[in-house]
Amino acid sequence: MATHVTPEQIALAATALAAGKLVAFPTETVYGIGADARNSEAVRRIFEAKGRPASNPLIVHVASFDQFSSCADLSRSFDRALVERRLTQLSGFWPGPLSVVLPAASAIAKEVCAGGDTMAIRIPRHPVALALLSAFGGPIAAPSANISNYISPTTAEHVRAGLGDAAAAILDGGPCEVGIESTVLSLLEETPRVLRPGAVTREQLSQALGCEVGALAPSRQPLAAEAPLLSPGLLAKHYSPRTPVRLLSSLGPSADLPKNVGAILFRPRELPFAAAHTTILSPTGNLESVAANLFTALREQDTLGLGLIVVDTCDPVGLGEAIMDRLLRAAG
Ligand code: TXA
Ligand code: MG
């Protein structure tokens, strides 16, 4: 789909941000709803619009690596020289779907840190996001542009459906290329740790950093909101449609299924039950296509009045780790 964002729309959106308003914009991962990261009142509006718990910190978006130094306070790092070296080792991933958690500088509104003193930061790769960041000239705090706990939006239409009233502007950059949220990597400790898997894989990070990269096992994450959480977006139940979701691999041969069951498959295959509606995400099971199409498929099937959505699974390695992470959460 062609994108039709004009320079005038970018300029208006940048002016709205400067006036403390919210702007929804595309990134390569999912759409974000952004505010000036230095403006407390504007950032509070994001939490209100999403119904987001005040304990869940935001990702700060910047246009270039140079801007990291005005947003992060590396003097508060556990080892400044080591963290600076790690950022240089990771710089090849930006612009791109990698967010790193660092101590926040005092210029960043404390609401971004949601009660802590750290924030996640990244340079998105979508040309519309980069144009907006350049026109605005400062850091933009932006979570995914969905009502809290619902599926992240991968089209402007998804944003309109959930948060249409909250945004002064919604920039339509077409469907998101990656389709799932960025990898969140904590650089707050000696061992770098993936708090949320994404398109930049643990294997890639480990290779770039030349060290082991830890992970949070989904099963070890808390089920209910308790503050302060290690990474509050990682509640085990998250990214969920309203329709119940089950994983295909968890259905026994004599599973008791409701009448209207939807199926979301990674590639064409035989099902052990008759599905009322089937969506195939990729003709070959290609994981990039699966990720790019997954959230739209979940949203579409969630409007069909189904009793259950059954979703395919894959090995949790590489991009499959991020896909299975989101599906395990959607299945609660
Ligand atoms: O791809 C993305 O990351 C999208 C686009 C818009 O950039 N944004 C996004 O934001 O997914 P959000 O707010 O939906 O998810 C942010 C994640 C949450 O899991 C949050 O807990 C984690 O990043 N996070 C942010 N700051 C953190 C911090 N200081 N410590 C630990 N986790 C943090
Ligand atoms: Mg989100």
The total count of helices amounts to: 10
How many strands appear in the DSSP assignment? 14
Q: How many whole angstroms does the radius of gyration measure?
A: 19 Å
Strand content: 15-25%
Q: Can you give the mean pLDDT?
A: 93
Helix and strand sequence: HEEHEHHEHEHEHEEEHEEEEHEH
Give helix % range. 25-40%
Order of strands, widest sheet: 7-1-2-6-3-5-4-8-9-10
What structural category arises from helix and sheet content?
Answer: alpha/beta
Given the C-alpha coordinates, what overall shape results? Answer: globular
Hetero groups: threonylcarbamoyladenylate, magnesium ion
The low-confidence runs, each spanning 5 or more residues with pLDDT under 50, are: 219-229
Main sheet? 10 strands, mixed
Distance between the termini: 33 Å
